[in-house]
Amino acid sequence: KYFITADHFGGAVGQSFIFNGVARRTVEVWGDPQSDLRIYKVVGLFDTWAPLMTSNAEVGRSVTVFGRGRQRGDVVTVNGQTKGWKWGAEDGVQSWGRNGIDSIVNVGPGNSALLKMAFDQNGGSYESSLSGGDSGGGVFIKHAGKWKLAGINYSVDGKFSTSSDGSNPFDASIFDRGGLWTQGVGFSADQGTNLTTSSYATRISSRMDWIQGVFAGTVKPGIFNPDPGPGVPTPEPTAAASILALMGLAIRRRQRGI
Predict the structure, then answer these.
(1) What is the pLDDT of residue 132?
(2) Residues 15 and 95 both lie in one domain
(3) Burial status of residue 167 (CB atoms within 10 A of its CB: 0-12, 13-18, 19 or more)
(4) Within this chain, do residues 132 and 182 fall inside the same structural domain, yes or no?
(5) Residue 86 shares a structural domain with residue 143
(6) How many domains does the chain have?
(7) Are residues 35 and 73 in the same domain?
(8) Residues 30, 31, 36, 42, CA torsion sign
(9) Distance between CA atoms of residues 50 and 12, nearest Å
């Protein structure tokens, strides 16, 4: 009877959505004062759900991400070399991708822990990066034989520019920022090895005390606004009715070598 999403995704009590063909309505909400997590209570019970990743053994593990969002846009090149792709049109089509947890960084709201996932050119089949509209989506890890919810998508590196002064910046999924200007970094010279960019998701295991407090009734409902972290949240979907992005997000999906 609960689902968890991104606080900056928005939404309000009383909104309705369809999940597995069944209409649901939210009746209560809790916003985490120390991260970008938000929990809603709904009328009735869900017929399927994912257990939470309570172990802190995420680093080095492969993840699968499901979502809805932007198409792949125009290719980004520097001196004729492909660096990634601009974000394309937002179509809301559900898709999925893979990645891996490289590290934990404390740069979320309230210095909360985020799962960091690099977008690697040779990262494997269906290597993925987040894009606009991904907010609230889930990052899943197979742990102890079960797929578990390990993170809720929060932000992605960028904007970028092909000009060294950062003029005319754009959003993109970039696997090598060499030769590009990057927001928060500046211009990086093109190098022999790729300078990857990353996507970030709020770490579930770090906020289990708060989550369990909501379930136990010891945390009062309400929305709080923690201090924003250095990371820039990915824009939420334009349709607020798609509030059940709890397990869905938009990703860039790319075959190896393309």
Answers:
(1) 87
(2) no
(3) exposed
(4) yes
(5) yes
(6) 2
(7) no
(8) positive
(9) 23
Looking at the structure, tell me whether residues 70 and 122 fall in a common domain: yes
pLDDT for 250 equals 32
**Is the model's pLDDT at 246 over the cut of 70?**
no
Asked whether residue 75 falls in the same domain as residue 35, the answer is no
pTM of the model: 0.87
pLDDT at position 227, please? 60
Task: State the Cα–Cα distance between residues 9 and 104, nearest whole angstrom.
Answer: 22
Contact 131, 125 (CB under 8 A): no
Contact call for residues 36 and 202 (beta carbons, < 8 A): yes
Element (H, E) at 209: helix 208-216
Q: Measure the CA–CA gap between 245 and 190, rounded to whole angstroms.
A: 37
Residues 86 and 141 in one domain: yes
Supply the range of the domain harboring residue 25.
2-48+207-227
Higher-confidence residue: 238 or 96?
96
Q: Which residues contact 24 (CB under 8 A, 6 or more apart)?
A: 16, 17, 18, 42, 43, 44, 244
Q: Are residues 40 and 91 in the same domain?
A: no
180-228 confidence digits (pLDDT tens): 999 999 999 999 899 999 999 999 999 999 999 999 999 999 987 666 6
